[in-house]
Amino acid sequence: MKKFITAGTLALTGAIAPQIASAQSATVQQIVERGTMLCSGHNGSYFGFVEVNDQNEWKGLDIDLCRALTTAILGDPDANQIVPLSWAQRFPALQSGDVDVIIKATGWTMGRDTELGLQFSLPYFFGGTQFMAHGDLGITDATGLEGGTVCVEAGTSIERLAANYMTTIGVEHTMVSYESQAELRSAYLANRCDAFAGWGPNLAVLRATELDNPDAHTILSDQLSSEPISAAMRQGDDGFVDTVNWMLASLLIAEEEGVTSANVEEMAATPPNPRVARLLGAEPGMGERLGLRDTWAKEMIAAVGNFAEIYDRNLGKDSPYGLERGLNSLWSEGGVLYAPILD
Amino acid sequence: MSIVNVSRPSKFDVARRTFIRNGFGSPLATLISLFVIAGLAYLGWAMLDWAILRAVWNEENVSRCGGHAGACWSVIDARHRLILFGTYPFDEHWRSTLAAIAIVVTVMVSCLPFIWRARRLAVLWVAGFATYYLLMEGSLLGLPQVTTDGWGGLSLTLFLFAAVVLLGMPMGLGLALMRRSEMPVVRWFATILIDTVRSLPLVTTLFTAAVVMPLFLPNWLEGDKIWRVIVAFAMFFAAYQAEVFRGGFQAISKGQFEAGRALGLNYWSILGRIVLPQVFRHALPSTINMIVVTFKETAIVTIIGFFDILASGKAAYGTAVWAPYYIEVLVFVAAIYWVFIFLLGQYGEYLKSRMALAAH
User: Fold this and answer.
1) Of B85, B90, B303, which has the smallest distance from its Cβ to A88's Cβ?
2) pLDDT exceeds 90 at position B331
3) Helices in B54-114 by DSSP H: which ranges?
4) For the domain B74-359, what is the CATH superfamily, name and number?
5) What is the interface pTM, i.e. ipTM, of the complex?
6) Residues of B in Cβ contact (< 8 Å) with A45
7) How sure is the predictor about B220, in pLDDT bands with cuts at 50, 70 and 90?
């Protein structure tokens, strides 16, 4: 029924006013009426992405993206409510309307895209499964694990990936499964495993936070997988997907153009080129096409910064984790993040 | 004629003598005792050494943690408010504190014999829960509103526990009575309900209530997630508690009902004045058991996104600075659980001795 109405409205607006078709987003309207954006949090903490600071406030890469989206739609980075969700709960919670969007280190998979009726945004992060090994083994890739012991967390997709990968490259090894991260970690530290498999960012976080001597551990160069991490939305609201995509795109364009939270006002007053002028609303167009204010991107960057600022603050060089940008650099710096064309 | 000293030996003396007799009666017993004592002393010393002697206590000294230092209680110093209050707004913690105290007082007063009248209990519970809700939610008192998504920590755990037990207990009694009913439809209904609920895992029940139900319930019936979860959890508690009460009922001979009827008492008088007091006495140990288990089971709500004390504990060490000190956080949370459960157990002992007096 809801789908039918949305489709009907879209057809109608398409006939009358094609230029603002994407402004007719039911989700955005709902958020504006409510005055609050509902974002996903975590039941605990997911290092770098969703954490709680000493003032009991949410922080992290995913939280900052939620704040960016909130600023884009409502003009106020704090007009959101972070709903704590477990991993298992996140998709039903999105479908039932408990949250407007899921920004929660969520990989874009075909099953989720089709069977679960979700819609994914542009990827904003690429994370892959990798191995971490004791540095004194002196190895740099998984072929060095011949005859060794590899540990994994039982029942995870990482376990399957690691087994697959080791068979493919033909390395004889013993694989040991542990019930929990904590057990896996202590087994590794007690030298019961030569290496263990995990999600790249998690390994870096672990190396930075838990291990006494970070240099004594090597993250092997093998990329067992690379998963695109995207924001997930309910299927059928194209306007909202556009809004989320352009929120992410604007953060990347701002980084490309060197627009930061510090210089955004100045850049908006005297834009160095037409692209920046359009981005920051000095030239009209950005807002109308999404049904938002022309200055939404400017306000957003002033509130949370560009993508580099968000990344560095939460995961990168200004954070305790010091995770390299790597794949998550802009295309112009050897990464895979890029924005669609702002015309 | 000699004077016989008839003063009772002190409890301590008795314990000491029993200990020496049983522990050091034979060479083998002595050997085992020494071994066990040495083991316990070693463990005790290791814990004392870790938790107190070599511990680092405050946030400013966190740099001394790690290496050869013992427990790093700095994490508790820095993050105790997160553990106790979850993501509740920092400036409003006094509300969460008062609300938690209101719940503890409500539960404690419920434990006192003078309150055990249906009307008094009803008034107390309504007042207690209303106080909690008004303080936590806030908008009706003109305070900044905090929706249930922001509730968390110890005060959420206590609230869930109290609500589930106080709601589930009468429901359980009702189900137990229905199951003993002479009307077949009522009896079957209770039997089917109890067996259905008991055949489902708690996690499934709560997940359905929190996550799946909003997908098909109409909006006006949906309510807040927390109420759906409390009702589902209370149903679960009630199904088990009904069986505990049934055990209590079975211990009472039918003759007592018949005697009551012969005296001209009606059903409710027989139940209230003759049967139930005995049922409660018989069901007491298992009931305390149920209550303790329920207190610990509240931690399951973390999988449906509630920030109970265990989840907020995880969040407390879930940041770069504090990540290495998860053991300290878990010990702290365990100590809180221990205090509450120990008190519950002691209250159970008190009730037992009180009822033992009544039985004679």
Assistant:
1) B303
2) yes
3) 74-85, 93-110
4) MetI-like (1.10.3720.10)
5) 0.78
6) 314-315, 317-319
7) confident
